Fold:
Amino acid sequence: MARKGTQKGRGTAAVAGGARARRDAGEALRRRPLWWLTLSVLLVVLFGLQVRLWFGEGSLRHVMELRERVETLEQENAALRERNRLMAADVEELKAGLDKVEEIARRDLGMIREGESFFMVLEPGGESGDDASR
Structure:
């Protein structure tokens, strides 16, 4: 009889274990939609971030375009700085003496001092060398 009692005990434990297994399976089924929903939301967020990374503002392509534009603008700025430096030097020369003013007046306006003689040399083509270069 002791043997039957131990078998009954096992049977009761097996029935209780089976009920617990069914209850756990039921809970797992109830949790599964939540798990799929969470996974789906995470995948949509990941996809959205990837789209922005590759195609939106601040994307890798956009950053490369901005870097190229910065490089171009830096080169233009360097050229303009050099131009400004030369202009500042001309301004200082003009402030310092009349020699530069006279040079510009002679070259651009055809100034002749009193007592000087002006000679215009014409090229065989009919135009002077100065007029051709302007």
Summary: The first helix runs from residue 2 to 55. The mean pLDDT is 79.
